[in-house]
Design goal:
Layout lengths: L1 H18 L2 H13 L6 H14 L2 H13 L6 H13 L3 H10 L5 H13 L7
Helix pairs in contact: 1-2, 1-3, 2-3, 3-4, 3-5, 5-6, 5-7, 6-7
Amino acid sequence: MKSMLVCLMNVVVNNYYQSGPFDDALELFEEMKKDNIMADKFILSNIFFACGRARNLDYEKAIHDYIIQKDLVVDAHLKSALVTMYASCACMDLAQQLFVQMTPKNLVVSTAMISGYLRHGRVEDA
């Protein structure tokens, strides 16, 4: 039953991320944590993207800390989402740290880094 609930939560979080309001996705994630519902990598990546769109750096860092505290596996999909999230909020130093640690690098994360640098006026770094 819990896997069905996680699947449903993923659909709702994805909808909030895609169309807004982005803060509702973050509130739903907080409710999931209170109810001890473990988010999967798909929910987490959608939460990262919602944070990026909401430009909520404090919450981004809190979710990143949550992943570390829960000792969750951070695969290439989540690392790409983290890099994209930090780049969206002009936190290019954190995005760069994650990017450097990634092996192998993929087209999505490379594009996120280049776009982030360009969006924030760091043409030389791009």
